[in-house]
Amino acid sequence: MQTLEPKIRELLQTHGVDFKTNSKSFIIDCPKCNKSDKLYMMRQSGKFICFYCVETEGFKGKPEFALELLCGLRISEIRKALYGDEPQGSSLILGFNTNEFADDDEDYMDLESPLRAVQWPSDSVMLDRPDAAPGVRYLESRGVPMGLAMEYSIRYWPSERRVMFPVISRCNLLGYQSRLIENDKPYWNERLRKVVRPQKILTNQELKRDQTLMFSDRITGDQAILCEGPMDALKAHCGGGGNVAAMGKAVANSQLQLLRNCGITKLYLALDPDAYMELARLRREMADVTLYDLRPPAPYKDLGDMPILDVKGVVERAPILNPAQIVFFLKNHFGGN
């Protein structure tokens, strides 16, 4: 690949971005964390990393994603300046290795990561344990066989009657979401003299949900299937890989950046039908990749209600989301959407 140094230097100078250089990299104040001299961009290839927010937001990868923020330009404009009329795929940087920056002039790895590994609760158990039987029955009732659940390292928490879905990145457990499997309906508490609504879904307090994605290690190719919750993502297991969960209806910009940094070129949006406002925002934010409409067909409310093999077919038939299209959500008050 031809060196990108002259084009990167011209972009930075034209748009008034201050920078320093060493033998390998441009050294720039990071536009995300605003910390001085933390963003390093290789002069030859353009690969970049911010040694601070790589840990909080995964901010590293192809040069256009840093230059977009530094120069205030659209991704398409940056790519035109860097690569001309080359196909976008030629700009992919594969095999990113932080150690490539290790020879720079100073030690820039003295950071504490807010995304620290955690431990499972001591009384949680793997699904092949006898006392995990209630959790296994719950998952199977939702169409998730035990073998698949174990592949995703799902656990059961007997004392809390909860199935536990892990958030694992690079083999580190960053946190988990748990789902109450029984007695999850509102009930009248005589002592409190009010209706109590049990919390069906809990996330451990240490997890910064907006800075990671559940099952993110599933992204190994050029596509991702973005779901709201873990059950939806599990049902997309046979959809070609990259099935992840945002762990909520709202998808944070930092989660979108993580997807970009993985080098995806195709993104399947598997949000629930009522998330039409979020869908419209994602179409604007992710206009630089090909988007597919993976909303479930009627009468299903979400992918989690569907059989796994049916979800595979929906992925294969998913239409491309045209940016010019208008998406409507019509609610059926007699049941279903």
Provide a descriptive summary of the structure in words.
The protein has 337 residues and is an alpha+beta fold. The protein has three domains: 5-101, DNA Primase, Chain A, CATH 3.90.580; 115-207, DNA primase, catalytic core, N-terminal domain (DNA primase DNAg catalytic core, N-terminal domain, Alpha-Beta Complex), CATH 3.90.980.10; 217-337, Dna Topoisomerase Vi A Subunit, Chain: A, domain 2 (3-Layer(aba) Sandwich), CATH 3.40.1360.10. It has ten helices and 16 strands. The protein has helices at residues 5-14, 53-57, 63-71, 75-83, 133-141, 146-151, 230-235, 253-261, 276-285, 308-317, and strands at 20-21, 25-28, 39-42, 48-50, 60-61, 125-126, 155-157, 162-169, 172-180, 187-189, 194-196, 201-203, 223-227, 243-245, 266-270, 290-293. The strands form four sheets. Strands 1-2-3-4-5 form a five-stranded antiparallel sheet, with helices on one face. Helix 3 packs across helix 4. The longest helix is centred in the N-terminal third of the chain and has 10 residues, at 5-14. It is globular and about 70 Å long. Residues 87-95, 105-113 and 329-337 have low confidence and may be disordered.
